[in-house]
Amino acid sequence: MQQGTKPEPPPENPVPEPFSLSACALESAEATNPFTNARRQLDDAAAVIALDPAVLELLRWPMRELHVTIPVRMDDGSTRTFHGFRVQYNDARGANKGGIRFHPEETIDTVRALAAWMTWKTAVLDIPLGGAKGGVICDTKTMSKGELERLSRGYIRQVGRVLGLEKDVPAPDVYTTPQIMAWMADEYSFMQGYNDFGVTTGKPLAIGGSLGRGDATARGGVICIREAASELGIKLEGSTMAINGYGNAGSLAHKLSAELLGINVVAVSDSKGGIFNPHGLDYVAVVEHKRRTGSVRGFPGAEPLANGDLLELDVTTLVPAALEGEITCRNAQRIKARIVAELANGPTTPDADQLLREQGVYVIPDLLCNAGGVTVSYFEMVQNTSGWYWEEEAVHRQLEKKMTAAFRAVHDTALRHDVGNRMGAMIVAIRRIEEAMRLRGWV
């Protein structure tokens, strides 16, 4: 099959690959629980480095979690009750940091897992923060702007007591935006009795946001793809890429991969479907089509493509940029990309990760690949604290420095222990957090 071509359909009664029997157990609902997977990743890495059991036990649990109930007056005059969460996983290295999701299928275990991954992520990037995450069970696509504002303010009224620049700083995540961060910062400021916009990051520039924050997640991922290709001896200019998930991170990965690396993006998808063109997709045209129609689906000059088929395209780089659990034992054997760059959180299950490694796929794990967002959020916190705001070039320069250093630490650790990059990232993170906990007398 040529690069950028659609995958052949599997036979009606496929014969299992030999390695799938030994490396991939049948995945149950429990096996695909995000928090189960996060703990398994931790346990596996701890076994490799013979981590002190007391340290491991402390790292297996969130230090704090808050469950809240939020009444919201809807546009029709009725009142709806929403449920939300804030999990502060571990703050040994500094104030907690992590996004807030608005999603109809949000669960506490998803939030716990994301808070754990954020804890490892900040340690991998060696920034002085801990990890947290928040979420509200809601469907933003069915809500008006006014309803979203009232929900956002209601959430902060409930969780604001555990937030603050020196405690816990939220940021945008799935279906939350800079505008939502602005509403939350305003509500928190009202509660404090003075302007305290530093309580959130990812804010609009007019109230203390940082230049370079909008494309930071994608930019950090593109830097990692460049570094991985250099290690593997892959020429990226003219190579092919497929992107599963065309939100902020995925769409900007399209833009930056083409502009900075000369990559030909041949397929993209969102929650409503995907599109494929072996000759490439123009970023500006696809974004404009999605703005007008609400989806990439139906883009002129491209073939329709199911999300599952996109993952199996024969491309140089596959970018999972949607939600967790996209690559599992059921499809990992059919992944053909040389590089998998995880812009989403938790897109690959542990068994699938092992299968990809056995197949020679170079995985850039989420703990590293999508950490550009939290890194520039940290820069925003520094700017909010000092009142001195950086030029965009300075943000890009500092992000480049952090991402390349983190890539090198993860890659070298994985080689030294003869493990995959995800476990390499976990080892880097665990060692840094363990040191902080010991110095503070926690263990």
Helical residue percent band: 40-55%
Q: Give the CATH level 1 class of the domain at 18-23 and 215-369.
A: Alpha Beta
Number of separate helices: 15
- Please give the radius of gyration in angstroms: 21 Å
Biggest sheet record: 7 strands, mixed
Q: What is the mean predicted local confidence, pLDDT?
A: 92
CATH superfamily of the domain at 18-23 and 215-369: NAD(P)-binding Rossmann-like Domain
**Proportion of residues in extended strands:** 15-25%
Overall form: globular
Secondary-structure element pattern, one letter each: HHHEEEHEHEHHEHEEHEHEEHEHHHH
Lateral strand order in the biggest sheet: 9-8-7-6-10-11-12
Briefly note the CATH topology name of the domain at 18-23 and 215-369: Rossmann fold
Stretches where pLDDT falls below 50 for ≥5 residues?
5-23
What distance lies between the first and last C-alpha atoms, to the nearest angstrom? 54 Å
Strand element count: 12
CATH 2nd-level architecture of the domain at 18-23 and 215-369: 3-Layer(aba) Sandwich
* Backbone structural class: alpha/beta
